[in-house]
Design goal:
Length: 216
Amino acid sequence: MQTKENIDKIFDYLNELYPNPKCELQYKTPFQLLIAVILSAQCTDKRVNEITPLLFEKYPTAIKLANASIEDVENIIRPLGFFRNKAKSIVSCSKQLIEKFDGEVPNDVDKLQELSGVGRKTANVVTAEVYGANNIGVDTHIFRVSHRLDLSDGATPLQVEMDLKEQFIGRKMNVDHYLLVLFGRYHCKAIKPNCENCKLQSICKYYKEKLVEKGK
Ligand code: SF4
């Protein structure tokens, strides 16, 4: 775990790198964001953005997607991988959204997880982005960065989320979430993190361990 001083240092730097952090998925409505986040599993936001314009042109609302043929949806989202499961999930999710929540995306992490294809990360991301909820969705980037920066040693995304929430009290986690994602995506990458040009070397657990390994 890091001290409050170090957490401030981390976010000062991340704000310097990404002064205007925001969701990189393109969407026009909460429903479209929910679908885009489901589709982004095991896939990049860039690839999702390449297929959602056609998907949302044909099926812009929950009611339209709920009545779509699975085959047609599969054909549209085929380039994403796992397209059969994803097509089934987003059509079922749309049906459940209408049946349970009158087609509205609920501002409730537990209720959202009742929908097909929606896990805790997706529910956290959607509520934070759409409603400004103080939630943090732990994806692969946040999981990795949190361990490297000694913000958590949790073995699961849920444990990491709990550790972050404990340390980020008083912060805007819906914004912190994007800063950490962008940092993991473009700077502290899984392979070859840009440590040479990183201002967090002095407080980074991963960097210090690498120095010890090299005997410096
Ligand atoms: S020093 Fe390297 S591993 Fe540590 S936060 Fe910076 S880029 Fe990531």
